[in-house]
């Protein structure tokens, strides 16, 4: 199983959506199973990309209604945990790709780092791990760079 | 999304495995996405059945290793929650089909009932909901009966 | 830390409440920290008993409002997990005392057994663990018997 | 119930410990129930402070052993969720006080902000909420300022 989680804002401008979609396409082409939060914005755009390449994209939803996810998901898991489902999104992937976003995305990215996972970020904010055992926070400039790094790092681990 | 969860023992005799496999086949034929605990026994047998009909079966794993699941899963979600992942399995489906099992299965079935979901049981134990708002516990004798009931009830809700 | 969890129905007759209250009193006298689901019925009655003996009783709440718990709790933890907080109640105690209840209580008791914990039951239903590694399900007739067993078993582990 | 969560690094220099201890003292004096992650560093120092003023401090532990917490806790809840217990620490308090720390603390602080809670930070990093519904991130220079703000904001909500 090559699980990659993609996290990011639920309200994003078209250029960010285009980045997420391209990330989705490239991950699906490479054979990854993609996990996301299942809702709008980056979560929807990445799902569009994955489906364009006939990949598998699974949404981990905050609520209890499986139909609350975006319509591009291959499958949706209603957790009923509220935003605490963020931690499950971070745990689902061997590597996490973060695209923009606000505090929800930061909670997922920093949690992944705490658990020793690499977070590859296409976006503006920085998180600086400073403790032994924490994962690496790596900036990528393009979807291609982010996905290549993700596959490389997932392969090492 | 038509999510059905299938729960049951991790160590089962061949005849129970055959039941789980047939349940998996019938759910996949009917277009359901099947959720299970991702490990051995009923969880593996139902996955075999789902894949025989080219369906989608997702394992919600207790540990953090995505490769700890059985090899028939379409996708595996490592949760790191230990057996507390049981409640996620119960929440994932609109209806839960229970096939045999011990206390782990009972925890999932009774939790689903607490949340108002119908549990269709092919097996020996009984749970008797006695409070308003709890779901129904229905016995089925065959995989066919269980799956027909599951689709009917999921359609009503 | 000697944590004991007490679980049971949210709507109970006076005689069941009296049992829970006596369990609470005896646990507090013995120096246990008592965990419960924080709401009404057995959860409230056990809290009354604990406070009568100046003990510590902590409610693990399903919602996000700390004030939704009963007024006898020493502290209330709002989890926002819904009934999935049941698993936390079961995990909090070294031993679990179950007093009556319906599917919610069964989900907690069976989950505790799955995790290898002893469940001491004053009530009508039976759970029969049948797998290696599962805890023991023991019936007690009186609060005294239940609490003595709980302290004895917690001391062994 | 006036619950305040205090989060921060598990390895801190003496001056940070002194800050956490003073925060604990002032919260206990003001009648708050203090929640923390239950381990070392800020979690232990705040507990020392709370106990010096005879307050109540509850540790929400990542593991399953109630005795893994620091010895100053009034009560310890073993969750078995690993670092996913971070979200429970963030949910437990009406307001969160963050003292230094690395990615674990950032995951708790950003999660609290996502859920609309105010985070009062005595430390070096910044989180900038940029979405409607997110909580406020406020910097405080001293324990006195942080605790006064915490009580004031908890009272408003």
Gist of the model:
In chain A, 39% of the residues lie in helices and 20% in strands. In chain A, strand 1, helix 1 and strand 2 form a beta-alpha-beta unit.
Give the topology, please:
The structure is a homotetramer of 157-residue chains.
Chain A: E1 3-8, H1 14-29, E2 33-36, H2 42-52, E3 56-61, E4 75-78, H3 85-92, E5 95-99, H4 103-114, E6 119-122, E7 137-139, H5 143-156
Parallel strand pairs in A: 1-2, 1-5, 2-3, 3-4, 5-6, 6-7
Helix pairs in contact in A: 1-2, 1-5, 3-4
Describe the structure.
The structure is a homotetramer of 157-residue chains. Chain A has 157 residues and is of the alpha/beta class. Helix content of chain A is 39%, strand content 20%. Chain A has helices at 14-29, 42-52, 85-92, 103-114, 143-156, and strands spanning 3-8, 33-36, 56-61, 75-78, 95-99, 119-122, 137-139. A seven-stranded parallel beta sheet of chain A has the order 4-3-2-1-5-6-7, with helices on both faces. The model of chain A has no long low-confidence stretch (mean pLDDT 96). Chains in contact: A-B, A-C, A-D, B-C, B-D, C-D. The A-B interface holds A 1, 3, 33, 35, 56, 58, 60, 64, 66-67, 69, 73-80, 88, 91-92, 94, 115 and B 1, 3, 33, 35, 56, 58, 60, 64, 66-67, 69, 73-80, 88, 91-92, 94, 115.
């Amino acid at each position: 199983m090559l699980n990659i989680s993609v996290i990011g804002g639920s309200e994003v401008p078209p250029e960010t959506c285009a980045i997420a979609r391209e990330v989705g396409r490239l991950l699906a082409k490479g054979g990854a199973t993609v996990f996301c939060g299942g809702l709008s914005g980056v979560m929807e755009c990445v799902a569009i990309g994955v489906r364009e390449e006939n990949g598998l994209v699974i949404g981990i939803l905050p609520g209890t209604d499986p139909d609350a996810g975006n319509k591009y998901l291959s499958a949706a898991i209603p957790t009923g945990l509220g935003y605490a489902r963020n931690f499950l999104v971070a745990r689902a992937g061997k590597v996490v790709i973060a695209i923009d976003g606000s505090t929800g995305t930061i909670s997922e990215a920093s949690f992944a780092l705490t658990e020793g996972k690499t977070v590859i970020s296409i976006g503006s904010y920085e998180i600086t791990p400073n403790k032994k055992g924490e994962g690496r926070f790596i900036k990528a400039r393009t979807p291609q760079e982010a996905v290549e790094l993700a596959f490389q790092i997932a392969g090492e681990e």
